[in-house]
Specification:
Blueprint: E1 3-8, E2 17-22, H1 33-39, E3 40-46, E4 50-55, E5 61-66, E6 69-74, E7 80-85, E8 90-95, E9 101-106, E10 110-115, E11 134-135, E12 151-153, E13 158-163, E14 170-175, E15 180-184, E16 191-195, E17 207-209, E18 215-219, E19 224-229, E20 235-240, E21 248-250, H2 261-267, E22 278-284, E23 287-293
Parallel strand pairs: 3-11
Antiparallel strand pairs: 1-2, 2-3, 4-5, 5-6, 6-7, 8-9, 9-10, 10-12, 13-14, 14-15, 15-16, 17-18, 18-19, 19-20, 21-22, 22-23
InterPro entries: CUL4-DDB1_E3_ligase_receptor, WD40/YVTN_repeat-like_dom_sf, WD40_repeat_dom_sf, WD40_rpt
Keywords: Repeat, WD repeat
Pfam families: Beta-prop_DCAF4 (PF23761)
């Protein structure tokens, strides 16, 4: 994988945008604006706020969550369609492993499972990404009734959803009142597990699950980093790592050089074995951090 999708939030003056960034060569802090412009390509822009975005397993299609709902974008052609109109901001979303099911978390606390293979309304289209035409979002928000067959409800705005790769039926939801729960799509009337100790009241904080799907990690508004056992829901790690809020998490994958070349030489693919320390990237407004533990 040599490309990455980047989306911008937008503001009260202009909407958000979706870009594709060429990562065939690593970015450096000395990278000038001209070089960066050659490596980043705008796919499209919208006249609304982009709260979240994700790509499917083959990175051909992207989903964006906005204040009008969810749109599906073909990253090769730039064509787009609305797949889930919503009156509530879609703050978090993620494709499952198949790329057919999209989990969407809303400001009103709903997590909705959408099958993107179903025929969708032709709300709008855009031209090829080279022209970066602007998507016109509908001004009237379409009402859609949610029911227990395709949605689960949390007690506050859903700021993160994470689908497990080992079993597509299970997914995590995290809300802005500090609640973290594990759900089963076959039994949406109740949660499977609850994870206690997370601190959040209003922040857009993401959850992170390690590649072995043993742990779930989150930063908190109290600047603590916490890790829970997925199986037992036990809080197994808690540390005040910095004075900032870590809002994004990225666990390195097996054989991934992104967690540091020296760590790769020392540990290689054994990074997640019980005898070795773990490492994870954490993002905040203050910058990017790398954290290790045992």
């Amino acid at each position: 994988m040599h490309y990455n999708m980047v989306s911008t939030l937008g503001s009260g003056v202009c909407g958000g945008s979706v870009y594709v960034l060429n990562l065939r060569e690593p970015l450096t802090f000395s990278c000038n604006s001209l070089d960066l412009n050659r490596r980043i390509n705008k796919v499209t822009s919208v006249d609304c706020t982009i709260w979240t975005a994700d790509t499917n397993c083959n990175s051909i299609k992207a989903a964006i969550g906005t204040n009008f709902g969810v749109s599906l974008i073909n990253l090769e052609t730039g064509r787009s369609s609305m797949v889930y109109p919503s009156k509530s901001d879609v703050l978090s979303l993620q494709f499952d492993l198949s790329g057919n099911i999209l989990l969407c978390g809303t400001r009103k606390g709903a997590i909705v499972a959408i099958d993107v293979r179903q025929r969708q309304p032709k709300c709008f289209e855009v031209s090829a990404r080279t022209s970066a035409s602007k998507i016109q979002c509908p001004h009237k928000k379409t009402r859609r009734n949610l029911n227990s067959s395709n949605a689960v409800f949390m007690s506050s705005a859903v700021c993160s959803v994470v689908a497990l790769q080992s079993d597509e039926q299970y997914f995590f939801g995290s809300s802005m009142n500090g609640s973290i729960k594990l759900f089963d799509r076959r039994f949406l009337n109740r949660d499977v597990q609850s994870y206690e100790g997370h601190m959040n009241s209003h922040s857009h904080i993401q959850l992170g699950v390690d590649p072995s799907e043993t742990f779930v990690l989150s930063g908190g508004e109290d600047s603590f980093v916490r890790i829970w056992s997925i199986k037992t829901s036990e809080l197994i790690f808690e540390e005040n790592a910095s004075n900032c809020i870590f809002s994004t998490v990225s666990w390195p994958h097996y054989g991934d050089f992104s967690y540091g070349y020296d760590q790769f030489l020392n540990n290689g693919d054994s990074l997640y074995k019980s005898t070795c320390s773990w490492g994870v990237w954490l993002g905040s407004r203050e910058g990017l951090h790398y954290m290790r533990g045992t």
